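From the pipeline queue, job 12 of 40. The input is one protein chain; the requested action is below.

Action: predict structure.
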Amino acid sequence: MELKINKVEDVTTIQFSGRLDTPSSQEAMAQIAPILDNASGTIIIDCENLTYISSSGLRIFLSLRKAAVMKGGKVIVRGINNDIRNVFMMTGFLNLFDIQ
């Protein structure tokens, strides 16, 4: 899994590539922790190159959403493929996030 974070003014873009499974989720959470403290803007989660997400990966998305809601920000999820969309549908995440 590869993770890229880019912040421009109040918009933070997080790009996930590869598999967001349990081992990579721990690493990703460590990198995302500073974003949780400053989640008052817009967080865009770019999933265009994400091929798999586990429950640990879903937990990261929930953490970002929770931090954003508490600080008046918002989270947008972009570029999910059909496999990830099915996981979102089965878990109810389609209703929790703004999917573009």
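Job complete. Residues 2-99 form a domain with the Transcription Regulator spoIIAA fold (CATH 3.30.750.24).
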